[in-house]
Amino acid sequence: MLEVKDLHVSYGKAQALKGVSLTVGEGEIVALVGNNGAGKTTLLNAISGLLRPKSGEIDFASKRITNAKSDAIVRAGIVHVPEGRQIFSNLTVRENIRLGAFTRKGDISADFDRVFALFPVLKERVNQPGGTLSGGEQQMLALARAIMTRPKLLMLDEPSLGLAPLAVDNIYEGILEIHRQGTPVLLVEQNAFIALNTAHRAYVLETGKIVLMGSSSELLESPEVQKAYLGG
Predict the structure, then answer these.
(1) How does DSSP classify residue 92?
(2) Whole-angstrom Cα distance, residue 33 to residue 195?
(3) Domain extent for 164
C-alpha cells in the first residue's frame, strides 16, 4: 500500500534521512522505532508532504505521491496524527472532531457514532473545549479527528508520549480497534516495547538509516534491540 524507496531528506546541509526504504501492506501495523533525533518524525513529515525530499520516491496505492501537496495526500487517504496531538484548545470536542471531515461531503453522523463508540469519554466531553481535556483524552481526540477522514493509512507519531500508563493502554486499545476495523497503521514510537508488542513488523531507524527490520517477534528477541531499546 505504501512504498518508500531510497528517501533522502536534508535540513540545509544536515542530512536527516539517508536512503530510507520501507513498506506498509494492506492490513498491517508497521512500527518505526528509534531514539530521539533518529529521523522518525522527519520520515512521517516527508510522507505526508510537510517536507520535500532531496531524492527518493514515495508511492501510495500504486500512485507516485513524492512532492505532492499535503492536502492532496490527505485526499488520497494518508492521515497523519502528529506528535503533541495538535488539537485546537479553544474549540469544543465536537468542533475538533468535525474538522477531520473537511475533505468529506454529505452526512457525517455515522462517523460521529463510530468515534464515540471507540472513545466514549469524548461523547461525555463533547461540548467542552479541547484544552480542558486530560492528555490521554486529547490524544483520543486527535485520533478521533483523524478517523473522521476515513483514512486508507493512518500514521501515528508518538501516541504514548507524556501519557500515564493507564492512558497509554486506552489509546492503544483504540489504535488496535481502528486497525481491526480495516485501517493499516504506520506507528512511530520511542517506546520500543509498546511498538513491538503492537505491530506486525518493524524497522529500527538510527541517525537517518534503517539498521534493522523484521517481524516484531524477531526484533523483540534481537540482542541489539534488547540492549539499545528494551533495557536488556
Answers:
(1) B
(2) 7
(3) 2-85+151-229
